[in-house]
Amino acid sequence: MDTWGWIGATLRDALAEALALVLPVACAGCDEPDIALCEACCALLRPSVTRSRPGVWSGLRFEGVAARVVRALKEEGRTGLARHLAPALRAAVDAAEAGASGHGGTAPAHTVVVVPIPTSRAAYRRRGYRVVELVARHAGLRPARLLAIARATADQRGLDRAGRRRNVARSLVARGATGLRVVVIDDVVTTGATLDEAIRALRAGGAEVLGAATIATTPRHGPRQ
User: Fold this and answer.
1) Residue 165 pLDDT level (bands cut at 50, 70, 90)
2) What H or E segment, with its residue span, contains residue 111?
3) Dihedral of alpha carbons 105, 108, 109, 115, sign
4) 165 near 193, Cβ under 8 Å?
5) What Rg value do the Cα atoms of the chain yield, rounded?
6) Residue of 26, 10, 29 lying closest to 18 (CA atoms)
7) What domain range is 133 assigned to?
């Protein structure tokens, strides 16, 4: 993303958050009235990084309060919650970079580019913002849109693991990735099919993929030692 694109996205996010402040709110985690996120629920969003699958690191488990907060950000337009999820994504990105260094990677942190899974046009029209990019900016990261959607896919919900992989196969293409060292970022990992497709596309585009990082992982893909 160029500088003007970065500034425009930041201003849009700030406006959305300002509008959210004037609307009646309840805690996204427990429904306590008149507060966007209570102290107790904030505490439950402290990062606890796990390797949800080889090469994929996640800052939270997608259950309980964390799941409710992610859903409120994604589906209810509560963009102010992005800053509360930012530490989880940042911790996962740091773990992905450290994991790569521990397995032969040599890239210092400042040379690593974070690449978000692209948001579909339909999702962007519905929300007006890109979820993982919003959280990434709150985490002090500058996401680079190196991936583009090459073909439309069906809704992943309701598909099994094999169906998800078939659904997203060859659906992404990388542009301007040659020679870059990257970490792929997304909001929630379920089967990992979309992340695998992103990694394939980036490698095909000439990038060195150090790993992937997500805000949360679904419980059925819990920590692996």
Assistant:
1) confident
2) none
3) negative
4) yes
5) 17
6) 10
7) 3-221
Structure tokens that stand for 105 in this block: 């990677």
Q: At 42, list the tokens.
A: 């904030």
Q: Which two tokens stand for residue 215?
A: 């805000």
| Residue 58: both structure tokens together | 């996640």
CA 90/CA 105 separation, integer angstroms? 19
Neighbours of 29 (CB within 10 A): 24
> Measured between alpha carbons, how far is 205 from 115 in angstroms, rounded to an integer?
13
Give the chain's domain count.
Answer: 1
Longest dimension (CA), the chain: 50
| pTM, to two decimals | 0.83
pLDDT tens sequence across 36-52: 999 999 999 999 999 98
The strand ranges marked E within 156-207 are 172-174, 181-189
